[in-house]
Amino acid sequence: MKLDLTDVCTCENREVTKEVTIEAASFDSKLGVFPIIEKKPFDLHMVNRENKQLLITGETDVEIAIPCDRCLEDVPTEFHLKFDEVIPLEGADGTEEETEEADYMEGVQLDVDRLVYHEILVNWPMKVLCQEDCRGICKKCGTNLNRQDCSCSKTELDPRMAAIQDIFNKFKEV
To answer: Among 18, 20, 161, 172, which is most buried by a count of CB atoms within 10 Å?
Structure first.
């Protein structure tokens, strides 16, 4: 969703609150495409600070389905997003770094989906588990070990000891 902020950006010390919605159906990143399960409309409060800065504040909750790191089952993960952005306005003395970071602001157009994307990216969890004691999947047959046990051999040999294992196998009595 794109918001036209002409009325806020052109009037000094103007404050506006608008109800916005997230239009994106999924969170697309280098990690993959994750469906957004639940999103709610929320209020964004915008303040023009003496024609120098635009302050954007608001908060919302978003729920995204992320695969478990061990068994690959989808885990509904809730993100509480809090927006507190300061964007230098055109004509104000702002550093180039500040304007480069605000890629969700193009002139007087605010891209709400892009703003939300950045907040989700910053809050993305390092590890997602369906449960603390998730057993994962079998490395040989791919069975989800949380649902059922498999009959695969559980012993894993150290590959550095393979030469010694070959010696034992050669001299094994039949």
So the answer is: 20
